[in-house]
Write a structure and sequence with these properties.
By secondary structure, the chain is mostly helical. Helix content is 87%, strand content 0%. The N and C termini lie far apart (64 Å).
C-alpha cells in the first residue's frame, strides 16, 4: 500500500512543479509586459541610436517590429470599424487579416519576452532608463 501511495504522489508532485514553473514564467512575462507601454515603444522609436547603444541593436529591432505590428493591428480595426457587412467576402478577408495580425502580435510579444528574460542585464538597463525617464517626466 505504501508503494502505491508513493507512486501516486510522484505525478502529483511533478504536476505541481510544472504548474509552479508555468506560473513563475507567466509572472515574469507579465512583469516585462507591464513595462511595454505605448510611451516606451514610441520613445524607443524616436531614440533608436541611444537605445541601441544601451540595449543592443537586436533588442531595439524587436521593439520596433513589435511597434509596427501593433500599429498594423490598430489600422485594421480603425479602417473597418462598423463598415463591414456580415457574411461578405470583404468581412471574410478582414477576419483573415485579423487572425494573421494577431498571430504576428503574439509572436512579437513572445520574442520580446524571451529576449528580455534571456538577458536580465538588458531588462535591468531598460527598467533603469525608463524609471529615470518617468521620474523626469520625459515619458
Amino acid at each position: 500500500k505504501k508503494q502505491c501511495q508513493l507512486q501516486m504522489s510522484k505525478p502529483i508532485n511533478v504536476e505541481a512543479q510544472r504548474s509552479l514553473s508555468i506560473f513563475n514564467q507567466l509572472s515574469e512575462n507579465i512583469g516585462i509586459l507591464s513595462w511595454m507601454t505605448p510611451e516606451l515603444l514610441e520613445y524607443i522609436e524616436s531614440h533608436q541610436e541611444q537605445m541601441s547603444e544601451a540595449l543592443g541593436r537586436d533588442l531595439v529591432n524587436l521593439f520596433l517590429t513589435h511597434l509596427e505590428v501593433e500599429n498594423n493591428f490598430k489600422q485594421i480595426f480603425m479602417a473597418t470599424e462598423g463598415k463591414l457587412e456580415e457574411n461578405t467576402e470583404e468581412e471574410s478577408q478582414h477576419e483573415n487579416n485579423v487572425v494573421t495580425i494577431v498571430e504576428l502580435l503574439k509572436k512579437s510579444t513572445r520574442s520580446l519576452c524571451r529576449q528580455l528574460l534571456h538577458s536580465k542585464d538588458q531588462l535591468q538597463e531598460l527598467q533603469r532608463m525608463m524609471g529615470s525617464r518617468r521620474n523626469n517626466h520625459v515619458l
